[in-house]
Design a protein that fits this description.
66% helix, two-stranded antiparallel sheet
Length: 439
């Protein structure tokens, strides 16, 4: 049955490999179960309810991705987008969290309309090969930075980054984990990243980094009540209070960030794993956009911020995950976490998953070698794509700056025909987003 559903032999993989890949990705992104409700609870939402909504939305989006696209990618409420939800839309623009959920839903519906139209494939096909390589390399730096920040190898204060306290605590455990994982990979051990996570979790016990819950708490469906369906009963009340321009700005920002976070992750990660076809496109990758948009709409109903494709999917793909079976494993683990598994998932500390992100970052950065750095028309957009992802802490912004600079440089050189029509449109949309957001 699994072979018929996911075509394992055709993708040169096995059930065991897919299961290990799924578990690896889940543990690499399990932090979102606790971090997302932390952000949204600041806006007045119930922590436990958002935690349940986070798990259900992640499971829904990931399982949809498995059946619609048969690709090994996971989805969950996105980092950055949850911060935008709380600090910009709620605190900065004055919307209630119920209004913010309505804005998320509207952006998801727009994304869905794009995803089911011919535009869905044109979005991916319009990206030049050089920028696809740059997106992959940029994501590599981005996830490595996430890993280092999560454990304090690097710290960020007052918009500046610095070296953290690396001789103790999570940072030291993570560094040990990087060495262990690197050695396992050097010896070509199958499942090196997964075993690295397990080994680092164990090492973290004497350091006090790995902790165990006092009790396993059962969460029922009733836990969702404080946020479930509030988008319909309260979300659209007073939505126009700040004016049409403010509303459009919020909706466009959510939609563009979600779309290009997903596109960037799909293309960049798939390229690093040699999953793209001869035309540089991910087979059925456009259908993953449909799953993403549906999950965003349903996530708003459940009571959480925008759902997007997670860059941590690259950890499972690096373990050999190639089909939707990997995504099914991830989705099932999120469902288990929704009811009683969350405290168990929390046993694996950030110090154990950070090495996986750093190692995968190394692998993905290798795609920068495919860029012709001697051609300045390509080098500048590629560099901006790579640099802006970690520096702006946003995959979407990296793509935006890459697209805009590529288009403008080609136009200035009179090479209008070398720019796909759709790239002109996307560049204009990014420019409008920045004008509206930072006006």
């Amino acid at each position: 049955m699994l072979e018929k559903l996911f075509k394992l032999k055709e993708h040169n993989t096995t059930v065991r490999t897919e299961i290990i890949a799924g578990i690896t990705t889940f543990f690499a992104m399990a932090y979102i179960i606790f971090v997302n409700p932390g952000f949204l609870s600041e806006a007045g939402m119930d922590f436990n309810a958002v935690m349940m909504a986070t798990c259900f939305a992640a499971a829904l989006g990931t399982i949809l991705t498995a059946f619609l696209a048969n690709v090994p990618f996971a989805q969950a409420p996105g980092m950055g987008l949850n911060a935008f939800f709380t600090y910009t839309v709620c605190f900065g623009m004055g919307y209630t969290w119920q209004n913010a959920l309505a804005i998320v839903m509207l952006s998801g519906l727009i994304f869905f309309a794009v995803s089911v139209s011919p535009l869905r494939s044109k979005i991916i096909e319009a990206i030049p090969p050089s920028l696809k390589s740059a997106i992959s390399a940029g994501i590599g730096l981005f996830i490595a930075l996430i890993g280092m920040l999560n454990v304090g190898i690097i710290t960020a204060n007052n918009n500046l980054v610095d070296m953290g306290a690396i001789t103790s605590g999570p940072a030291l455990v993570a560094i040990i984990g990087v060495i262990i994982t690197a050695v396992l990979m050097a010896y070509k051990v199958k499942g090196a990243i997964f075993f690295g996570i397990i080994a680092t979790t164990i090492i973290g016990i004497p350091f006090g980094v790995t902790t165990f819950p006092d009790q396993i708490t059962f969460y029922g469906f009733g836990t969702l009540a404080p946020v479930f369906g509030k988008v319909f009963t309260e979300g659209f009340t007073g939505l126009m209070a700040n004016g049409l321009l403010a509303l459009i700005t919020a909706i466009i920002t959510f939609a563009i960030c979600d779309c290009f976070d997903t596109v960037g992750t799909l293309i960049g990660t798939a390229k690093a794993a040699n999953m793209l076809d001869e035309n540089g496109n991910l087979p059925k990758g456009d259908k993953a956009l449909i799953a993403d948009s549906v999950a965003t709409v349903c996530g708003a109903i459940l009571g959480t911020s925008t759902v997007t494709t997670f860059v941590e999917s690259s950890t499972g793909i690096s373990e050999g995950g190639r089909t939707g079976l990997t995504s099914i494993v991830i989705g099932v683990l999120f469902l288990l976490a929704a009811f009683f598994f969350a405290p168990i998932a929390g046993i694996v500390p950030s110090a154990a998953t950070a090495p996986a992100l750093i190692i995968v970052g190394v692998l993905m950065l290798g795609n920068a070698a495919d860029i012709n750095w001697k051609d300045i028309e390509i080098a500048i957009p590629a560099f901006l794509t790579i640099a802006l992802m970690p520096f702006a802490y946003s995959i979407s912004d990296g793509i935006g700056f890459g697209f805009i600079s590529y288009t403008l440089i080609k136009m200035a050189r009179g090479k209008f025909k070398e720019v796909p029509v759709f790239l002109y449109v996307i560049s204009v949309l990014f420019i409008l987003q920045y004008v509206l957001t930072f006006r």
